[in-house]
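Re: weekly structure request thread

Next one in the queue (96 aa):
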Amino acid sequence: MYMTIRKYQGCKDAKEINRVALAELLPVLRTIAGFRSYEIVDTGKETVASIGIFDSKEAAENANRQARAVVQRTALKDLLPNAPEITVGEVLGKAK
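Done, posted below.
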């Protein structure tokens, strides 16, 4: 299992980012084979993070490409003024 964390700085309206991402990006992510989950986090100080979980590294990388395309063609382009810091890695363990 792989996780993608995308951290965006300079975000003025986290709630609107969440609304648009769930309406525009989530449906695209759900079409990717290996998609597990997607969360958006308001981390404060005009920073928003998203966390995606995927079955494979390939699925996570595909999701990053798809996310970039969705941002460029939707209102997210203006809501996310700076390129994200992206981290992709294998999930080594999960606690419940």
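The longest strand covers residues 35-44. The chain has one domain: 2-90.
Next request, please.
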